[in-house]
Design goal:
By secondary structure, the chain is mainly alpha-helical. The protein has one domain. The chain is 89% helix and 0% strand.
């Protein structure tokens, strides 16, 4: 058993100890957590939709502006 094997084994022991502590602490995902998570998710989704609408509107304006620049260039 080389030094690297010992280091790897020690790392796994520490990982298992941390997992045991996590398990002993109980389930952190309560109903309250899921309720808050859903609320934040819906807010983020709403914000994304608003941003997408605003982007489409700005893209249309940019396209129009680009077209007018081309028209002015050829006139």
């Amino acid at each position: 058993m080389g030094l690297q094997d010992w280091v790897d084994e020690e790392r796994y022991v520490k990982t298992l100890e941390e997992l045991k502590k996590f398990k002993e602490a109980g389930n952190p995902f309560t109903e309250e957590f899921f309720t808050l998570f859903q609320l934040v998710y819906k807010q983020q989704l709403s914000m994304l939709q608003k941003l997408q609408r605003r982007k489409r509107k700005l893209d249309k304006k940019l396209k129009s502006m680009t077209t007018w620049r081309m028209v002015r260039w050829f006139c």
